[in-house]
Amino acid sequence: MEGTATNESAGTLKSHSGRVHELKAFDDTKAGVKGLVDAEVAKIPSLFHHPPDKFGKASNLEHVIPVIDLTDVNKDPNTRQNVVSMIREASETWGFFQVVNHGIPVSVLSDMKDGVKRFYEQDIEVKKKVYTRELKPFVYNSNFDLYSSPALNWRDSFACYLAPNAPKPEQLPEVCRVILLEYGEHVIKLGIALFELLSEALGLHPDHLKNKGCAEGLMTLGHYYPACPEPELTMGTTQHSDNDFLTVLLQDHIGGLQVLYQDKWIDIPPAPGALVVNIGDLLQASWSLSSSVCV
């Protein structure tokens, strides 16, 4: 029995060592998933293989994430009260809702999506210069949890910290720096407005969450999901929750976003000009505490 246990341990260590070697080899290319697609791989590396998901898909005829219109929310008290009620119900039921007429011009949304695409479709040698796993104002890599995740996502990402300390323009890639900064300014304003509405939904003063510092920071993420030759074997983004106060998500026309509700996956199809709002872990914890206090 001792010999068998030792052999199994040695095999496990060897397997782990081989996996780490594969991960490092992939990381060292600095080409990400886009590099695999550009190389025209027919079979995706086993590092990206995911086990089958245990949850089924629900009918969107029965489950629809609400789309909330913010028109006149700051002008008409009745409209504001209706919006607050819808946000309260959506936050408690789904943890998600979409907003339209939110104050960010459609042209800015379109330019932001184009800016993300421009960045990822640059020449690989240009992108390699900013590929890093170090903490910097702009971080681009593939799979931030590359060395700890049980299976990799078919996705490349960049992260940009825009607040409270905005980066200098020269610290951002030239192909998207202008729109990143412009989009960030708009999202900060929207974030403050949403925190006011969420505070009211909790029965608190409109400035409550803002005064707690919830709206001080902003990190913008830009994800790129290139076409996959074996999509049935992998995932673009695995099941997760966001460890922040609030996520404002801009989807492109392809969509793919889903919410797990009562052990069923619910689609959130893209809506023209809409932004998806996701209650993050920190706000959910605050919501539970505040709701208990209110009751």
Automatic annotation (TrEMBL):
What are the residue boundaries of the Fe2OG dioxygenase domain, all occurrences included? 214-295
The record's InterPro entries line, in alphabetical order, gives:
DIOX_N, IPNS-like_FE2OG_OXY, IPNS-like_sf, Oxoglu/Fe-dep_dioxygenase_dom
PROSITE patterns noted in UniProt: FE2OG_OXY (PS51471)
Mind listing the UniProt keywords for this protein, alphabetically? Iron, Metal-binding, Oxidoreductase
The highest taxon in the source lineage is Eukaryota
Which GO terms of the molecular function aspect are on file?
dioxygenase activity; metal ion binding
User: Which Gene3D superfamilies would you find in this protein's record?
Assistant: B-lactam Antibiotic, Isopenicillin N Synthase, Chain
Its needed co-factors are: Fe cation
Identify its protein family: Belongs to the iron/ascorbate-dependent oxidoreductase family.
Q: What is this protein called?
A: Fe2OG dioxygenase domain-containing protein
Q: Which organism is it from?
A: Lupinus angustifolius (Narrow-leaved blue lupine)
Q: Supply the source organism's classification.
A: Eukaryota, Viridiplantae, Streptophyta, Embryophyta, Tracheophyta
